Amino acid sequence: ALLTCLLLFYCRLINNNQIKRIPRGAFE
Questions:
Q1: How far from 11 is each of 17, 20, 25, CA to CA, in Å?
Q2: What pLDDT is attached to residue 11?
Q3: pLDDT tens profile 1-28
Q4: What domain of life does the UniProt record list for this protein's source (predicted)?
Q5: What's the whole-model pTM score?
Q6: What is the DSSP letter of 1?
Q7: How far apart are CA 23 and CA 6, in angstroms?
Q8: Which residues of 6-21 are buried (b: 16+ CB within 10 A; e: fewer)?
Q9: Cα gap 28→12, rounded to integer Å
Q10: CA 8, CA 28: separation in Å to the nearest integer?
Q11: CA atoms 12, 16, 18, 22: torsion sign
């Protein structure tokens, strides 16, 4: 369970960094 929690945590960090770098227009 601890491993999955860490994995989700890292995935969230990566997703947040990508969202900040990629302009919002890419999602629309």
A1: 10, 14, 22
A2: 79
A3: 678 888 888 878 887 766 666 566 655 5
A4: Eukaryota
A5: 0.44
A6: -
A7: 27
A8: eeeeeeeeeeeeeeee
A9: 21
A10: 25
A11: positive
